[in-house]
Design brief:
Helix content: 40-55%
Number of helices: 13
Low-confidence stretches: 1-26, 30-41
Structural class: mainly alpha
Shape: globular
Distance between the termini: 44 Å
Number of strands: 3
Strand content: under 5%
Largest sheet: 3 strands, antiparallel
Length: 293
């Protein structure tokens, strides 16, 4: 049910229905009221949105100046492979599927050690892992704690390696080629085959993996604006600090979707892609917000 009323400022007419304005004869007051209501539903007021945009610009400037508590990201711990190579793409793909509910720095330290050890490096080659007994793979992944769940995580790793072996000729770059370097297409392909990409197909890890691909390999995506913010704990905390969300929303079961949608909205007219804010937010939060915006 809704109701219709006259707009007193210009005798235009608009209708309030199902939580939205449906304007019949547009007027400035009705348009402003509609926009204000949409912002209220999104959780960010018109005035707050402008302040947040100002703070975002400051955050980018601080990041560029190296003032957000250190520039080293977890993935910077790597063996410096040729960025064009198959091995480099595989190195930044396989550990990503195990990057949940753990210290990311420890994961990538272990990945580097695993690559550099002749006894364990085979686990980065899909053609070898596909034929490798699971117990042998488990031993490789546990040695430097790339896997910390001995039963579950080796199976995840082997499943993804088997997918790359069978579908992409042992080269994850072929996924990007087949999908014409389109983020939309790549996401659709993976989401349509979730069992073939365990955990890597998760919304948070998938977006962050594509971001890491862009940062540490030579891939260029044609529609990078579709890599959304990846709302882990640090991103959620920083979003709250900026006023993108409030304290009561942090515990909602769909908070990841809320954060992603609000960043998409905030950045839509600022000339940034959503994923561009990830590293500044992550470093700011990890530095316990010591830098005042």
């Amino acid at each position: 049910m809704g109701f219709r009323e006259d707009c007193l400022c210009c005798l235009g007419r608009h209708e309030w229905k199902f939580g939205h304005f449906h304007i019949l004869n547009r007027c400035p007051l009705a348009e402003h009221a509609q926009q204000a209501e949409l912002e209220r539903i999104r959780g960010v007021s018109l005035n707050d949105k402008e302040k947040i945009k100002t703070d975002i610009i400051k955050l980018f400037e601080l990041h560029q100046a190296g003032k957000l508590g250190g520039e080293k990201m977890p993935e910077d711990e790597n063996p410096c492979l040729d960025i064009h190579s198959r091995e480099n793409y595989l190195y930044f793909t396989l550990p990503m599927a195990l990057n949940y509910q753990r210290n990311s720095y420890k994961l990538w330290e272990g990945a580097k050690q695993t690559w550099q050890d002749k006894a364990t490096v085979d686990c980065f080659y899909p053609e070898l892992v596909a034929k490798m007994p699971i117990d042998d793979l488990r031993e490789c992944l546990l040695k430097f704690k790339v896997a910390i769940q001995p039963n579950k995580q080796p199976v995840i790793w082997k499943t993804i390696c088997t997918t790359i072996h069978e579908q992409f000729d042992n080269d994850i770059r072929n996924l990007f080629i087949q999908e014409e370097f389109s983020i939309i297409n790549i996401k659709q392909r993976i989401n349509d085959n979730k069992t073939a990409f365990p955990y890597l197909s998760g919304k948070k890890i998938l977006n962050y993996w594509l971001y890491v691909m862009e940062q540490y390999t030579d891939v260029i995506f044609v529609d990078r604006e579709h890599i959304t913010v990846t709302p882990d704990t640090h991103i959620i905390q920083a979003s709250c600090k900026l006023g993108i969300i409030n304290e009561s929303e942090k515990t909602l079961p769909n908070i990841q979707d809320i954060v992603s949608e609000r960043w998409q909205d905030i950045l839509s007219d600022m000339g940034y892609c959503p994923i561009d804010i990830h590293t500044p937010l992550w470093l700011w939060s990890r530095g316990k917000f010591e830098i005042v915006i």
